[in-house]
Amino acid sequence: MTRSKQITRLAMIAALVFSGILIDSIITYGLTLPIKIAVATTVVVITISILCTLKEALFAGLVFGILSVIRALIMPSLVQAATINNFWLSFANPFVAIVPRVLIGLNAWLAFRTFKSMFGDKENKFISKTLPCSLTAFTGVATNTCFVALIMFFFKSISEPNFALWDFIRIYFAGNFLAELTVAMILVPFLANGLSRVSYFKRESDAIGEMSTKMKAVMLTSLAFIFCLIVLSTVIVITG
């Protein structure tokens, strides 16, 4: 791939992520929702992670994180979350906004290729095509939610000694996580499988069946480690 084509692809990815942020902002502020959703943007980043290379997946997550910081600064939430001061303004912190979003790209890219290697050779189209994408969507959303929660809890517990832990869990997990998870697990398979038929988005992971057994084992082990981190971050937030 030529350098100009690479730049064009990255520009297109950035535009898609920006469109996702714009849609989420319109939904959040247009409907005056009590939560600041990132449904469309999360779906876009996960879909890109399925269709594109690892570098492009990481780039999509990075753009998502940077735009989240900008949105938190110029479009503060219209509501305050219980006793947590400037709850959503926490996304102005680059650690809270950027690190988890880059991890979405990494984990979703790895998850799809792992699940595809496990189920891709099945005759049932739902198992071979839809299931890997849905499981990847779950991984991406869980990564975002758990690591945002963990990092935000770390910073908030330091800056606010009376940090309302259960208010935090109720609003972020019950609000954002369920909405993003439901939409992502439904939309990602349709978008990923549909766009994979377009030559511009030709999925390089279609050759995953040729992956060596050793490589599949490495990817599966890496994914298991990621899930352990997700579970650990959830436990830390819940137990304080």
Structural account:
The protein has 240 residues and is an all-alpha fold. The protein has helices at residues 3-30, 39-51, 54-74, 94-97, 99-119, 125-159, 165-195, 213-239. The chain starts with a helix and ends with a helix.
User: Structural class of the helices, strands and pairings?
Assistant: mainly alpha
What's the number of helices?
8
The backbone outline, from C-alpha atoms, is globular
Major sheet: none
The pLDDT mean sits at 77
Q: Give the H and E element order.
A: HHHHHHHH
List keywords for this structure.
240 residues; mainly alpha; 75% helix; globular
Task: Report a brief summary of the structure.
It contains 8 helices and no strands. The chain is mostly helical and 240 residues long.
Detail the topology: elements first, then pairings.
Layout: H1 3-30, H2 39-51, H3 54-74, H4 94-97, H5 99-119, H6 125-159, H7 165-195, H8 213-239
Helix pairs in contact: 1-2, 1-3, 2-3, 2-5, 2-6, 2-7, 3-5, 5-6, 5-8, 6-7, 6-8
